[in-house]
Amino acid sequence: MAEERDEINWSLTTWEGSRRAQLRHALTLTLRERMEAMEGLADVARRFRELRAQGAFKSVSERAGGRQAATSVHEPSPPTNDASG
């Protein structure tokens, strides 16, 4: 058990570390693997669209019964390196 804890790369457990690890992994993919991943994501999006059309799941505002507007989540913009700011 202690050996497993020693093998954990704790720098990957932060949001930034995880994002960097994902980018490093994505850069190792071949064009074919990238296209297959895109096709798989498109399949998931189509399936979600079908489920929503069937009423299988609803948006946040629909679940709330119109009591509140749905909020969107946006990633922060990356910092700029210009001299003006």
Uncertain spans: none
Helix content class: 40-55%
What's the story with the biggest beta sheet? none
Counting DSSP E segments of at least 2 residues, the number of strands comes to 0
Tell me what portion of residues adopts beta-strand conformation.
under 5%
> Which shape, going by the Cα principal axes?
extended
Order of helices and strands: HHHH
* SS-based class: mainly alpha
Radius of gyration: 20 Å
How many helical elements? Answer: 4
Termini separation comes to 49 Å
Q: What's the pLDDT, averaged over the residues?
A: 81
Characterise this structure:
- The protein is an all-alpha fold.
- The chain has a domain of 46 residues.
- Helices cover 54% and strands 0% of the residues.
- It has four helices and no strands.
- The protein is extended, with a radius of gyration of 20 Å.
- The N and C termini lie far apart (49 Å).
Supply database-style keywords.
85 residues; mainly alpha; 4 helices; 0% strand
Describe the structure in brief:
The chain has 85 residues and is an all-alpha fold. The chain contains 4 helices and no strands.
Secondary structure elements and their pairing?
Elements (H helix, E strand, L loop, with lengths): L1 H5 L8 H14 L2 H23 L6 H4 L22
